What does this fold into?
Amino acid sequence: MITLFGATGYTGRKIAAELERRGLPFRIAGRSRERLTELSNSLPSRPAWIVADAQKNETLPPLFKDTRLLINCAGPFTDLGEKVAQMASFAGVHYLDTTNELAFVYRLQTYHKMAVTNHSFLLPACAFEIALSDVIIAKLLQETSAQHVYVVYHTPDTKISKGTRLSALRSLTTSWIGFQDGSWNGMVPAGKSSQFQFPSGVQTAIQIPSAEVFSVPWRHPVRSVEVWMTVSRSWGFWGPVVLPYFARFMRSIFGKWVYTLISRHDPLPVEDAESPFEILIGVQEQQEQDWRQALVSGKGPYTLTAKIAGYAASRVLGNTNLPNGLITPSVLFSYGEFIEEMQANGIQFTF
It folds into this structure.
């Protein structure tokens, strides 16, 4: 059995539809009885539902009864996710989520030993961007002795959901973590800009906090990891000036006002089936040497996240020999099978 928590949100609904399409046994959970009933009635299998609120710990234990995998879509994870992941590791239930909040992912190493003891895994950041980049980075590092890694996200036309906006805001506020010279250290986000060559031309990018900053060194003996997101040229200039101050402002007592204002604005994004993205990945053995690069391109980030979650769920239910502890997507996924699965969904890989 799979339990899908946060099922009535934008990403949660897409994952529910994907689990239904795959014919996997699942139930749904969330805060609103009415929205859960509506979602259940819209699905052919009429999945059972559980009312649970990540802000009310006493409502969470039923999530872990009679289930093998918990998929968590209830964010922002910095505020709401840690207790859920902790309880999953205590209960011996496999855990997967779709966040890219670096500080939250970093904190989950606290529960690594508990998950190992209870023969379960914790797999955060299994959304489209981290899953794709993590699998490709693992492949490139398997083939080289690279010490330096960078990832650049280019998503020019994607409309983001409320949940993604809030997660990005919380990550900017709390994820002041970098990885340089072989160790994690404090780093104010968005403090640098650079330029990268894409097939469409040179793109300006700013450095961002992203889960690879933790997940890559967690698995591989690298010296540095940098993650970037493309922006306009003007934001490439002003972003490193404005955003670090904005991040500091959001950590002040006034930040809650901005957060509340944004959280009350709740339009769903347009259907993302045609929203393109590119992910440029580079590894380097020594500084001053050439980078070995890979490019991943496709469409529909939210739909692809649901496809990846469904693929992960099918692997969990179809296997008894699963990894334990805090893992990354490349640990759960077989490289060849994952690439074939992604190519079947229109994703292109160029090495």
About this structure: Residues 134 and 216 are 7 Å apart (CA to CA). The first strand starts at residue 2 and ends at 5. The radius of gyration is 19 Å. The chain is about 40% helix and 25% strand.
